[in-house]
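General statements about sequence and structure are easier to judge against a single worked case. No coordinates are needed to read the tokens, only the vocabulary itself. The sequence in question and its structure tokens are set out directly beneath this paragraph.
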Amino acid sequence: MKRKLQDNLRRVHDRIANACARAGRDPREITLVAVTKYVGVDVIRQLLDTGHTQIGESRVQELVRRAAMIREHQSRRSDANTAEPPMPVWHMIGHLQRNKVKQVLPWVETIHSLDSLRLAEEVSSQAEKIERTIDVLIQVNAADEAQKYGVAVGAVPHLAEQIVSLPNLRVCGLMAMAPLTEETATIAWTFGRLREIFEDMAGERFLGPEFRHLSMGMSQDFEIAIEQGATMVRVGTALFEGLPTAEQAP
């Protein structure tokens, strides 16, 4: 399993490097968030052992359960060995309900799916209680799809201006998903639109230097996203192809 995972990870990094070469970018600008939704905890542990620590989950219950299991396992390893085992950096990449914020906040470093002022206020309030500052990205409905979560394009700057004043939040950028289509031009247009919004906002005085991330691109389109300016890509299927799923894992 470990060899297969290493091969997959190398292939994904090669694809990132090739996309960066086409766009004249440095691959070190790109953060690969490994989306572990469909794999078991043993696979996540193997991934950590390769040195990759950026992990994304889309469901609060699974993120909390897996994070607790990984922490317990790594703590036992730390007790048994002198070397410090790698610990994950958790990203919440799925839709987040306000009643789940308290549950997830002790574990995550970055929330990619902030999509309302009420949600931002709840995140800020709960983060203050546990004396943490959380990195957040504003999810944008860049393709104007009725069935998609995210802030309407025209409302993004106003929402950002409202939430930067909230304590215990760092507004670090924007996130979007492309439409489910094989039309490359449509995907590129969606990501390019998000980049334009980001670039327009980056000059605003109310945003600080931490506003520097574009989270866009998944297994089927992350190369297009990189060519359009992504700094974070969320990859699952391409990274874990051929490995045990969560249902198959013991």
